[in-house]
Specification:
By secondary structure, this protein is an all-alpha fold. The chain contains 14 helices and 2 strands, in the order αββααααααααααααα. It has a two-stranded antiparallel sheet with strand order 1-2. The longest helix has about 30 residues. The termini are far apart. About 5% of the residues have low confidence.
Length: about 300
């Protein structure tokens, strides 16, 4: 038996099958699992009033954050390819934020966007603009977390930069001889050549977005009035603050499993998350054949 099969069985197949089994049980960590059939799934699809708002919040985040992350990373990479000097220095500067601990970065971001004393609103007030409440506003909380997600695009930026620099120079030279300007070369040479990398970045960003937890957890608890957020409470001072606007699906899963100790129901939630992840990923891959050039090249 090969090591790969052993690793696959121990670290993937067994945990997934065990989780599937637990999703059909009532399990609270303190007693043995009790088989209850489809009751968890019946409650998931018909009784839990938090599931579909959490799914909606997560899909909203994917629809906005994923394109912004990919475009931001690609834009930085393109600027670095144009730089004449100091490419290595700027590449390091843009990559360093990804090494910052997530909790520290989120705390710093919440401080910067504090509606009363944060530097962002202070600067806005100096030019006559009344800054929003950011993380304390149901309308601005998700956009604020979307901005925060751009903090970690350094990984994608490095991948884009390597892909762009790997585009054969003769393709650009041929296009330039044919009279193509910079924008046409970007559209007809660069983008088709790096389309597999774009697809990879989109899929990774989608998977990470579906697992978006750390930043939302820290921001929703710290931004609550008095910093008294209770991880087990989805009220104004709990997960999803304010008013459930940041209750993403992983937060709901965490709340059920580790605040309420409904491990069986949390397992059912995780199985739905798996199905959603597979469905979204397969949808992207299915439509990628229209624009991804497996071997790169021009259009």
């Amino acid at each position: 038996m090969s090591p790969w099969i052993v690793g696959f069985g121990v670290f993937f197949a067994y945990p997934m099958l065990d989780n599937l089994y637990l999703s059909f049980t009532h399990y609270d960590l303190l007693s043995s699992p009790v088989w209850i059939g489809l009751r968890n799934y019946q409650y998931l699809f018909g009784g839990d009033q938090q599931v579909w708002p959490a799914v909606s919040n997560t899909l909203w985040f994917l629809a906005i954050a994923v394109p912004l992350q990919v475009l931001f990373a690609f834009g930085i990479a393109m600027m670095l390819t144009r730089a004449k000097r100091g490419v290595g220095i700027f590449r390091t500067i843009f990559y360093l934020p990804t090494l910052t601990p997530t909790v520290a970065a989120t705390l710093g971001f919440v401080f910067l966007f504090n509606p009363a004393t944060g530097p962002v609103n202070v600067l806005l007030s100096k030019i006559g603009i009344s800054g929003p409440l950011w993380f304390q506003s149901p309308q601005w909380a998700k956009p604020s977390l979307t901005l925060l997600s751009l903090w970690g695009v350094g990984n994608a930026m490095v991948i884009f930069l390597a892909a762009i620099l790997d585009v054969p120079k003769h393709l650009h030279e041929s296009a330039q001889l044919d009279g193509a300007g910079a924008l046409r070369r970007l559209w007809y040479v660069t983008l088709p050549s790096i389309s597999p990398v774009i697809l990879f970045s989109i899929v990774i960003a989608v998977i990470q977005g579906l697992q978006y937890f750390d930043q939302a957890y820290v921001a929703s608890t710290v931004a609550a009035p008095g910093h008294l957020g209770n991880a087990g409470d989805n009220s104004a001072e709990g997960l999803g603050y304010p008013q459930g606007s940041t209750l993403f699906y992983p937060l709901l899963l965490y709340q059920q499993g580790f605040s309420y100790f409904n491990m069986g129901y949390a397992a059912a939630l995780s199985m739905l998350l798996l199905v959603i992840s597979l469905a979204v990923t397969l949808l992207i891959l299915r439509h990628s054949s229209r624009w991804v050039h497996a071997q790169g090249g021009v259009r």
